[in-house]
């Protein structure tokens, strides 16, 4: 019994680490406009709240995925979040009070994690075999890894701001995968398999182009 418990725990930790890369990107992108002290708070608070939400989602995963169009709606909402994470780089810190910025960053982290963590939820729920304690322990162990990963990405975004488009593209790809895994749309993608293959890449192109155009327009408006 102990060996089975440990094997399941190792599997859950592995799943969390393998599928946690995009979550680290969200955490970094959502908190990159905050002052350095508040960044640390946003990363820690966002990660902790996101983990709590993930635990709750995993415990109800079986029922959640019986709801029609959950994956489709989640994918569309994730696209919306990804777009605002890209164009948000032009926000001026002075125009937003610090505590409001921190709150918005944490809210964005939790919302995006909840939407894009569905693959993680399914995999963890399966590996846990209905044992909630395994889910909790596995996610708690993965917290420091996610925080470290997001801090590393934050440093890279500071040094290379254009990386925000790569992060946005990865979120768009995740959104596309969510949409094509929607059960109610399965007949369409089964009949037209090329559509399912191309959709994530088309969404990357659409999102990065929309973000780039918006940034160019903002710069032109701000010119004297």
TrEMBL record:
It comes from the Bacteria. Pfam families: TerC (PF03741). It is found in: Membrane. The chain crosses the membrane at residues 6-30, 42-63, 69-87, 108-127, 133-153, 160-180, 192-214. InterPro entries: Integral_membrane_TerC, Integral_membrane_YjbE. Keywords: Membrane, Transmembrane, Transmembrane helix. One of its GO terms (cellular component) is membrane. It is a multi-pass membrane protein. Belongs to the TerC family. This is Membrane protein. It comes from Metabacillus indicus.
């Amino acid at each position: 019994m102990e060996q089975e418990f440990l094997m399941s725990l190792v599997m859950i930790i592995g799943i969390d680490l393998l599928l946690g890369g995009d979550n680290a990107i969200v955490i970094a992108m959502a908190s990159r406009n905050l002052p350095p002290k508040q960044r640390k708070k946003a990363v820690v608070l966002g990660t902790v709240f996101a983990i709590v939400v993930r635990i709750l989602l995993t415990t109800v995963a079986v029922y959640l995925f019986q709801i029609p169009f959950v994956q489709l709606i989640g994918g569309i909402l994730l696209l919306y979040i990804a777009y605002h994470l890209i164009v948000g780089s032009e926000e001026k810190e002075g125009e937003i009070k610090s505590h409001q910025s921190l709150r918005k960053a944490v809210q964005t982290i939790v919302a995006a994690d909840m939407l894009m963590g569905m693959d993680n939820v399914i995999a963890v729920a399966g590996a846990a075999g209905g044992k909630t304690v395994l889910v909790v322990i596995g996610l708690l162990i993965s917290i420091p890894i996610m925080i470290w990963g997001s801090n590393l990405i934050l440093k890279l975004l500071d040094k290379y701001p254009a990386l925000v488009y790569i992060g946005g593209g990865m979120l768009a790809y995740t959104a596309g995968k969510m949409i094509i895994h929607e059960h109610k749309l399965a007949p369409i993608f089964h009949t037209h398999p090329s559509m399912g293959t191309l959709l994530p890449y088309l969404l990357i192109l659409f999102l990065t182009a929309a973000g780039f155009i918006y940034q160019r327009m903002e710069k032109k408006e701000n010119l004297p």
